[in-house]
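SEVERITY: medium
COMPONENT: batch folding queue
REPORTER: lab tech (J.R.)

DESCRIPTION
The queue accepted two submissions in a row. Attaching both inputs and their returned structure tokens so the on-call engineer can compare them side by side.

ATTACHMENT 1
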Amino acid sequence: MEKTTFVKAKKNIAENVRRQLLKLSLLDNSFTILSDSSYIYFPLKDQNGIQSLMGDFGGELKTVKKLGVRINRRADDYRYGLGSILTQKELKDFSSGYDAFGNIAVISLPDSLAEKENDIAKIILNSNKNLTTILKKAGPVKGVYRVRPVKYLLGKRTYIADYKENGCRFVFDVRRVFFSTRLAYERNRISNLVSHGETVMVPFAGIGPFAIEIAKKRPDADVVALELNKYGVYYMKKNIKINKANNVEAVLGDFHEASKGYRLMFDRIIMPLPKSSTVFLDDAIAVAKSTAVIHLYAFYEKDRINELKDEIIEHGKANKYKVTFLFERVVRTYSKSMIEVVLDYRIEKQNTVWAMQ
């Protein structure tokens, strides 16, 4: 920390003061804005230019010397820019940052920052040359299709993302389909596990990232991707063409119903539906060959992962197949108590039982 000069403003006029300081290029964005219970403290670049501004506010502003927190970040880091318009508390409130889908950023803002949303959007847009559009989350993920409402803020008015990952390109409407960049590592990991000539089933496939990344790496694999959302299937088919992944079959349908037409066909089943994947264990086993690998994603409490394993083992006992766990990994933290975990496991069916079903 080091001493620097601040403009001291009461909270009820602080936003107007901030805008004027920006307009006059007097705000020093190499220091964070400070606050206490009654005042906001804006770091100054030039004391000499402040006199006219102080007059505009009728003597309500004062300059003070205080210990300031210097922002030691790269100039192209959007948080560096945010330090010039947000207090330290506001920066913490904005800790979740944004999700970037290629050309589109979707930011998550608390209600307390609503008045500054356009300024925040401008800084983010200018910090990343790949971005053309800034949207704002306008509600939670909801419904069976797991879609989230969004609000346009700044830049090109579009909702069609153009996103690249692991050598593949995906286009999709962020208002119509679910997509998570947080599974990029998992998609790469699993696509590297697929052997030549495998048959792979991906229920809950969305716009097709798991299926297409596998198909690109293993052109001799046969991949079936199931999705219940018609918009998901629409964009999956577009992405299959874009990536020339002709060994992917995109199917519109419910896994429970569709599984009846794919019995005993697949070497590998990928289940990226963490909120309810275990509900579909019967269907996964039905489409699996006598020996197969399942990748199951689930939300679970941090200290209770063994209960998830026990549930899978008990399902195996009840349905006459052996379970061997191969790998487990925490994919991400979902909440204070919940994590998303992936379990890879091999199943071996008792053939005499399954041949009769």
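ATTACHMENT 2
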Amino acid sequence: MGRRPTIIDVARLAGVSKSTAARALSDSPDVNDATREKVRKAAIASGYERNHLAVGMRSGRSGLFGLVIPDITNPFWAEVARGAQDIVGENGASLLVFSSDWDHDREASHLRALRQARVEGAIVNPVSDNAEDFGRFGVPFSLIGSSAERFPDTPSIGSDIRQAVRLGLDHLVARGHAAPALILGPKSRLARARFLRSVHEHCLERDIDPAVLLVEDGDYTFEGGHAAMQRLMARQRNGHLTVFCANDLMALGAMLAVREAGRECPRDVSILGFDGVPAGAFSWPGLTTIEKPARELGRRAAQALFDEIAGRPQDGRTYLPCRLIERGSLADLTVHTPLRVAGAGRS
């Protein structure tokens, strides 16, 4: 393997001094445009790559930013990362992405790694409930997702969960579904509490006792939705079953469980998702879902971070609206069957 090119190689190829080459690659105003272009071409020709860590130690700027998301395998969070990367790239910087896997210790380890990499700032979907964990981080940061509500003094961006849940429930009512069964996330997640609270509010407005709702816990994964759907079908064996899932991965897992049980969606079971991941368009039937603006969430969180660094901090929390994507996973019960409640028929 050949020797890695250095700034000396670039300077020699460009016919300038080492210090001039370094200033040119740092966009110093002391270097004229012709020399800067000559050095840039020499760097490309030699295969030279700058050591961002070393540059950051000298200049106080690394050109690196961090993103810590809870599940990098979930397409929703991949879209969030893409949005954040767009803004970071537009500002001439690079983004380091970590997945906490909903684990507090892993999140803390990632934050330490980002600090050691001398990132200029970070975007985090927090697992930790402790504001001191982020205070010790020592760099500017913005927060994203429902969990960020635990930190009211920090700029944060999230989906309007209340608006989204009500949008989904209103659509179910319009199609003859009075009160769906629910597949939710773990009890420890703030997003679950907000989702469930919004469902309860909607039920009470329609004189439906929330206690009649069938509820199963998932874990925001395909496998978790599959297992939760099996439990729901065991609890309600008669009548049409309507299920509102707290994310699309669980909804897609639920659809598989329905097929494996010899039942059909939407003839026997109607399923409504939540997130709007692209895979929902390719399932059979297509998954009707509430789409959260994943990429825009990432973009807005990154912009909030740059505004914070520039001394233009955003106040409080910003909520972005969601939209309904209608496909084929919901039956129209106003046409085929009378209005019914998902919990009806239980022994």
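NOTES FROM REPORTER
The domain at 161-292+324-341 is CATH 3.40.50.2300 (Rossmann fold).
No errors were logged for either attachment.
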